[in-house]
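New to this. Please check this record:
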Amino acid sequence: MSNYVHSRRKFLATGSTALSALQAWPAIAAAEVVKPQAVTVLNPQLRVPLSFVVDDSTCLVNMGHYCMPQFATAWPERNEYKKPWQTWPREIPDSFVREFGQWCAQHGVKGKYSIVPFPACVGWVDRELPGWSQKQLQASLKLVRELMVPNWDIHPEMITHTRVIDIKTGRPIQQINPATMENSYPRTKKSVDEMAAYLAYALRILKNCGLPCQGVTTPGGFGNLVKDELPLAVHEAVRDVYGSELPHYFKYVVNGDESAQPRLEHVRNVDSSDPKVTVNVPACTGDWFGGWDGDRQSEPDRYANAAGTSGRMVELIKRGEPAVMLCHWPGMYTQGTKKGFTAFKRVVETLNSRFSDQTIWMKLSEIGRYWTAKELTHIALAERKISFNAPFGTANFTVRVAGAVATNNAPRLMVENQTVALQGVAETRLLRSGTWCADSKGLIVCFDLPKGVSQIQW
């Protein structure tokens, strides 16, 4: 945790050598039965998870335009906030949300999409946005619910992303300085309950809008002084407002050789009927598509070059760890030129073309859930039987049983009194939930792991 880069705005990724190349193993014919040696949990469907994190998005409001003068007031010495924001569009229209969402759906892209509840203090998304009609606001929310929700986790990115709000009055703190900006809040120690109350305030606004939510995104350096309290506050707030079983959050970016796997924080009561854990899902790249303000040159090759042979995403895929790209919504729109979006499409097309048999697009919540099941499920191996006791279920749970297994003994999933035969496939690239494959190292089984007790027998 201490090696995390704590400010996404300052993140600069460095190149590193891939540790291993992901390979597909050939299927083998029926072999002599050998007693299994061990069970290893693999990536889902034996594929590397991909995801796309979109920060600073909301309904209609261009956060680059409205945040810039507020940041300049709080940090007057910073040249990065002395840009001609008055010339930038105040709106990122729903037509662009539709274009982006439809293209991503067609290409299988999944990830996280923020909805800032009180964006830059312009207006409340569950009430009104001055400058837009009520009809426009409701249409924007409807578009998010219908187009984005199926493939994207919706997060509040705190309340305003700029000014700290007094949650007793709903008004911004009167003073304007780093201590009263969410990007650097809090500047003094806060309790878990105090942080949870602030997060819950943001979550309730999204709930009023009919938006589902299992996690939160922290803007900039929000929570840096309360890193131990923050995961507990996330858990308390998300459970209180939404009743979500497994809360998660996005705050950190990992660099270089740091592990890109999700972190399970404050794990407790695992053996009870109410297990508790907060999942910290990091991103693994900088924002090289146009920046948080939409005023920067895109550098798509830093994610993946056109040939798919180099770049941070290529490095992570070859390493076999979750590859989570980061961007900011104004950078996708790029002051109306859509240059960031064009660069993003090229990167996705490269990844899907070069690594389609080795990767799977997932939401942050899906990645977090898979890793929670991977780390917390108790697995016991006996001859021709694996027993699972899972505090959390997950889709596409994939395990390998070391030792060659005769392919004519089809594995079966047993849950309570029900038995489901799994279908054999000839190649690992064909693995889906409910299938199995034999390779030179043993048996690979892919299935939806239920919460509680289950077995695989063959």
